[in-house]
Amino acid sequence: MIGKFYEEEIDGFLFREYGDLGRPKYLILGLPDVGLVGSIAAMHIVRERKLKDAVGVESYAFLPPVAVVVDGKPLHPMRIYSDGEDFAVLITDVPVAPPGVAPLGSAIVEYARRRGFEVIISVTGVGSPARLKGGEPRVYWLATPGPAEEIGSRLNAEKFENGIIAGPYAVVLKESVRRRMGNLLLLVESYVDFPDPEAAAAALQALGKAVGLEVSVEKLLEEAEHLRLRLRQFMKETREALNRLGKPLEYRTPLVYT
User: Fold this and answer.
1) 43 closest CA partner among 32, 54, 55
2) Which phi and psi angles does 131 have, rounded to 5°?
3) Which segments of the chain does DSSP mark as H helices, in order?
4) Can you tell me the distance from the alpha carbon of 241 to that of 207, in angstroms, rounded to the nearest whole number?
5) Residue 40 pairs with which residues in a beta bridge?
6) Residue 181 · residue 122 · CB < 8 Å
7) Rg of the chain over CA atoms, in angstroms?
């Protein structure tokens, strides 16, 4: 405890609580991945529900040495926002360096376990040729046994049965299994190299039905083209990092099924 702040270091990441986190049931992750689907969805939740900045996440070993400044106020590059009751959302303004992906995934799961979250909800994109043809993004789900699987069964979506998942959400999934933490993974068909607000909207609509997350996606869809332009550089940085993480493996069928 430092002053009125609480700090806890896990796997090289410092979680600094300076706001009212409360005891939310769900921790929604907005880590940068394919199509920036999770990042866009998380940002929209924070804005529409007016969540409060509660926790800063820092690592001088695995995150760039930057401070984000908003309205004259310096912020941690990675933060957790909360409504103090049901939902907390993790967002990051910078991509995680490849060596930090595994420690970050492990740290997030352990922090969620210690703070009493019931389910971590991971939102990400999965590259699909259908998106290039203008098709509606389909949502798939995968979950650990227990409460997360019960939520998944309430989604109007197809269960992800076979395939390979790579990157930060793969670490969160595996660590959730190891630590017996609930984890629901939403995979939405998306563009690979471009930010995909429409895929983020599809994920939010699915979540709304399953966990009562009431978030209008009308504004998100109206601003889709603006977001694509504004997030181009972030998408480029994310894509470069993902390529070093073996992300192309997702497009290969698991050996056991060939």
Assistant:
1) 32
2) -65, -35
3) 37-49, 98-114, 129-132, 147-154, 168-179, 197-211, 218-222, 224-230, 232-243
4) 28
5) none
6) no
7) 17
Q: Which tokens belong to 95? A: 């991509």
Token pair 């007016």 in the structure block, residue? 50
Note whether 86 and 70 are within 8 A (CB).
Answer: no
**Rounded alpha-carbon distances, angstroms, from residue 149 to 99, 122, 142:** 30, 13, 8
> Which residue in 45, 49, 7 sits closest to 28, CA to CA?
45
Provide the Cα torsion 175, 145, 215, 84; round to 10°. -70
Q: How far apart are CA 59 and CA 65, in angstroms?
A: 8
Residue 189: φ, ψ to 5°: -55, 130
Residue 253 has pLDDT above 50, yes or no: no
Q: How far is CA 159 from CA 140, 152, 153, 154, in A?
A: 5, 8, 8, 11
- The DSSP letter of residue 112 is H
Instruction: For 157, list phi and psi in degrees, rounded to 5.
Output: -150, 160
- Interatomic CA distance for residues 46 and 213, integer angstroms: 12
| Nearest Cα residue to 172 out of 148, 139, 136 | 148
133-164 confidence digits (pLDDT tens): 777 899 999 999 999 999 999 998 899 988 88
CATH topology of domain 6-257: Rossmann fold (3.40.50)
The pTM of the whole model exceeds 0.85: yes
CA–CA separation, 219 and 201 (whole Å): 10
